[in-house]
Amino acid sequence: MCKSSIHSFLQALPKVEHHMHIEGALSPSLIFKLAAKNGIELPKDDSAFSSVESLVERYKHFTSLDDFLHYYYIGMSVLLSAGDFEALAWDYFQHAAADGVVHAELFYDPQAHTSRGVSYSTIVSGISAARKRAESEFGITTELICCFLRHLPVSDSLMAFDSSEIQASFKDGSVIGIGLDSTELDKPPHLWKELYAKAATQELNLTAHAGEEGPAEYITDALASLHISRIDHGVHLIDDPELMASVAKEGIMLTVCPISNVVLKCFPSIKDVPIRKFLDAGVRFSINSDDPAYFGGYILDNYCAVDDAFQLSAEEWKSVCRAAIEGSWCSEERKAELLERLHSVMEHWRSKVA
Ligand code: HPA
Ligand SMILES: [Zn+2]
C-alpha cells in the first residue's frame, strides 16, 4: 500500500468509476448470508464453498477470466429479491464513499438473473433503492449500463434488448447505455453488430469489453463494428501502436482495471499493466475496480497499486481524474461540478506540500 500522505491525497481525489459490475461487489460473506436466507444450495462438490474463508482463498487463485466467471455466476445465484440487490449495491456504495467516489456508472447483467426467474424489475428496483440512498447520504451520483453476455447466443442478447422491461428502462432514462461482457476469447465483437446498431438508433451510450484477454484486433473490431465511445479494459491496445495512436487521437477512453488484470492473469504484475505507456502515448483512461469483492481491491486500492508501481506525479493524477470526469456519461453540469471539486482538491494538496 502507498505511503500515508500519498494515500490521503489519492483518497481525497474525486473519483469516477466507469467499470464496476454491481454483481462483482457480492462479497463471500453476503453470498453465504443470502444463500442461507433464500434457501439456495451452494455447490457441495467444490470445497471452495465450505466457508467464507475457503471462498476468499479460492479467489486468490483465479487462472483466467473464465475461471473467475464460473464463481461470479454461482455467486450471483443467491440474489433473488429486490432487497438482495439493494443490499448488494448498498455494500458497494459504502466502499465507494469511503474511497472518494463521487460518480459511478455501474454495469449489471440482467440475462444472468432473468434466466433464473428473477424479474427485471426486481433487479432494477433493488439497485435503484440503493442508488437513491447513495445520492442522498453520500452525494454519489450514479448511472446504469445494461450489459449483455457474450457466452450466450447473440439471439438471446437481441431478445433481452427488445424486451418491454429493458426498453422501458432505456426510455425512462434509468439506464443510459449498453455494454458487452463475460467470456471474450472466440467471441469477436462484430457478432453483436445488430444489437449495437439498434442501441445507437435509441441514442444509448455504447461501450464494450474488448482487449482484456482478447487481442488488439478485438478492439479494432469493436470500434469499427459497434461504434463504441469507450473501451472496457482495452489493455491489449499496447500490442498495436498504430491503433494506440488512433485511439489517443480520437480521445476514446479506456476503462482500465489494474488489479483485475493481475488477478485474472492478463499481466504478471501491476508494473506490467501499460499505465505509463498509455500516459506517454496520450491515451485517455480511467482506473476502476471491475469486480472488487472477487479481486481483493476496491477503487482506492487500484489507485494505490498504480501509484506504488508507477509513482505518478500529482499533475498526472489530476489528468487521470480529469479524463475520467470528462469521459463520463453524466450531465455537463455534473461534470463541471466534479471538475471544480478536482480543482479544489489539487489546490488544497499544493498548499499542503508548498
Ligand atoms: O472483467 C470482466 N470481463 C468480462 N466479463 C466480466 N464480467 C464481470 N467482470 C468481467
Ligand atoms: Zn469488467
UniProtKB/TrEMBL annotation:
It is found in: Cytoplasm; Nucleus. Substrate binds at D291. InterPro entries: A/AMP_deam_AS, A_deaminase_dom, ADE, Ado/ade_deaminase, Metal_Hydrolase. The keyword ATP-binding does not apply. Binds 1 zinc ion per subunit. Zn(2+) binds at H19, H21, H209, D290. The active site is at E212 (proton donor). Residues 14-343 form the Adenosine deaminase domain. GO terms for molecular function: adenine deaminase activity; zinc ion binding. Its EC number is 3.5.4.2. PROSITE patterns: A_DEAMINASE (PS00485). Its cofactor is Zn(2+). The record marks H233 as: Important for catalytic activity. Keywords: Cytoplasm, Hydrolase, Metal-binding, Nucleotide metabolism, Nucleus, Zinc. GO terms for biological process: adenine catabolic process; hypoxanthine salvage; nucleotide metabolic process; purine ribonucleoside monophosphate biosynthetic process. Gene3D superfamilies: Metal-dependent hydrolases. Catalyzes the hydrolytic deamination of adenine to hypoxanthine. Plays an important role in the purine salvage pathway and in nitrogen catabolism. HAMAP family: Adenine_deaminase. This is Adenine deaminase. It comes from Rhizodiscina lignyota.
